[in-house]
Model the fold of this input.
Amino acid sequence: MTHIEQMIQDMCPNGVEWKTLGEVCDIVTKQTGFDYTNTIKPALLTKKSEGAIPYMQTRNFSGRNFDYETEYYVPEHIVNQFPRIVLDKKCLLISIVGSIGNIGLFPGDEKCFLGGAICVLKFKPGINISFVYEYMSSIYGQKLLKSKIKGSGQSTITIEDIRNFSIPFPPQEIQERIVVVLEKFASLAAELQAELQAELQARRKQYEYFRTHLLTPASESNSAANNDGCNWEFKTLGEIGKVCMCKRILKEQTNTSSGIPFYKIGTFGGVADAYIDEDTYNDYKNRYSYPKKGDILISAAGTIGKGVIFDGTPSYFQDSNIVWIDNDEKQVLNKYLYYYYQIVNWKVDDGGVIKRLYNDNLRATPIAFPSLSKQAKIVAILDEFEKLTTSLTEGIPAEQAAQQKRYEYFRDLLLTFDRKAE
Done:
């Protein structure tokens, strides 16, 4: 039996008292806080300025985290007209439209102006707001909220339903103890997250250092060990291969539902949102330039020089924005190019709206490379570094999810109470 369980047994042998939220707090929304004869209009909102305060919307809060850098701000003269919906003390926020159940514990360390689709629970003195936050975030509180959702289109929940929610209120000593335990748990999880991010950053820096070192000739890096007695060649990309791109695809040749994935610069390296029919794909692939499996595709606009290894899966790529060097692998290995592109200082034309890497600039880009056997060794080393970095990058979200599940399990366990008989 835990210390908290013993406290509950000693202090509440017959169960704990339950109260409705309407008994312990004042519930405010943007609508209930306004005098409708003088309501705020979107046109009155402004960008960040002297005296203006953030206009709080549901996307600006989650749990204990608040983003005060909002898109809109409320001018000072309007703030003074509506003190009821100015958040300046610790309170609880609940989304009541759309993402029902998003709970925020507003710390009260900065002023905010209440936006739409949110209700505020301003608690009476003596109520432990953090305890109520934990309960409303738990499986029990979320079940209450979800049970009252209305609307076949956009989901909503009424203020009256929230006012009538009945939740347990054990003695203050027990509430405080539970909050301390859960806040400590959350703090340890945050510390672990920071440590993982720091380790990832250090590993990336280490990887970047060795990548630059291994891809730089000894004469430039002042490290004879890097050369291993091999001679390096210095050429331009235009000398080792031809710049290629796919045949132009017109917008009317694409669709958004099915076919061969068509990658544009915005989806390059991600998930395609456009497709072309298979007949066009086969025709263009056979008649025009098309990458070989293993070729390194390069973004020539947007994120300049981003490299993606073509895996041979049926796909098509936007001309001029996505290109590749049809290089002779008897000179330079594709995978060596993949890593070399990561250290290139690309010469781009930024005179237009979008930065662009033109073919002439691409051809003129210098490259240094050792013998094929040396290239293969460099690639093997960098593959291992990339694998280690990728494993940690993928592991962080998994660890976060595991930590969150552990936290939720103990929170729900601690917040399980028997109701005191009337």
User: Anything to note?
Assistant: The longest strand covers residues 118-123. The CA atoms of residues 51 and 274 lie 46 Å apart. The chain has a mean pLDDT of 87. The two ends are 27 Å apart (CA to CA).
